[in-house]
Amino acid sequence: MMANSINSTDTIIMAALSTLSPPHHSHLSDSISALLRRHLGRLVSLLSSPALFAVTLRHLQSLSLHHKCLLIARHLLSSLTILRHALLSPSEAAQPPAARMKLRDLDAALLLLLLCELHHHDRRHLLDAPPSRWRALLAAYASSAVLRLSSFGGCSGGEALVQFAESVRRCWDLVRVMGGGEGRAAAAAAAAVVALPSVSAGGGEECAICREEMREGRDVCELPCNHLFHWICILRWLEKTHTCPCCRRRLPTDDLRREIERLLEEIAVIGGGCEHGRIQ
What we know:
Layout: H1 4-17, H2 22-48, H3 50-61, H4 65-87, H5 103-121, H6 124-127, H7 134-146, H8 157-179, H9 190-194, E1 198-200, E2 205-206, E3 213-214, E4 219-222, E5 228-229, H10 231-238, H11 256-270, E6 274-275, E7 278-279
Antiparallel strand pairs: 1-4, 2-3, 4-5, 6-7
Helix pairs in contact: 1-8, 1-11, 2-3, 2-5, 2-8, 3-5, 4-5, 4-8, 4-11
C-alpha cells in the first residue's frame, strides 16, 4: 500500500520542510530542537536513575506486543501532529496541536526505541545479559552512539530537522513491522464526522454513493476534498472507512496506524510527493 515505507518518510519530511520560508523554517527548527532536547532529557533521567529505569522497564515488560506497537504509534503520532501543525498556513493553524504524551508513556516509548536500537546494533548485548544489567548497557551505548549532544539534543537547527526525520522513519518502520494491519479499513473519527459542514446542493449533481441526484436546495455533506454526498449516504460510508468515495482522501480516524498514514500523506502533498493525498 505504501511503497518504500511511505516513499521514505525522511525524504517526504525534508521535501515538505523545503517549502517553508526562511523565518518559518528557523522557527520550526527551534521547535524541533526543543522537542529533541526534551526527549534527550527524559532519556538521561531514565539512564541515570536506577529507580525510574526499573519502574519504566517493568511497565514496558508488562505490555503485549500490540500495546508496545500502540505506544510507538502514539509517540510517532504526537511528533507528526506537531510537524503538521507547524507546516500549516497561519489561517489553517487556528487549532493547537494535540496534547503531548503522558510522561510515563513517553519514557516507555523512548526506552523501547533505545532497546530496539541497541538490539539492532548488536543483539548479543541484550540476549547475553540479564535485565538487571540493561541500564548500564544502554547507558554505555547511548553515551557513545545515540545521545551525543552534538548530534541529538544540542545540534543545529538543520541537523535537528534531519535527526527528527530519521527518528520518524525509524518509528514508522517499527510500527509497520510490529503492527501489521495492511488492508484493514478504519472508520472516520466521530469528531471529524461531526465537524463536516452542510451545504446546499446546486441541483444536477449526483451522489457518488447512491447514484441519485442531490436535489437543488437540499442540505448535503461536503468533505474536505469538496466532494458532496447525501448526508445519510456519507454517514453510513464513514462508519466503515475514513476515505472519500471519490478521491480516497483520508479523514481523521481513531485508528493510530491509519492516522499516521493520513498525516504522512498530507505532509507529502505539501512537499509535492504525491497527488491529492495519495502516496504514489
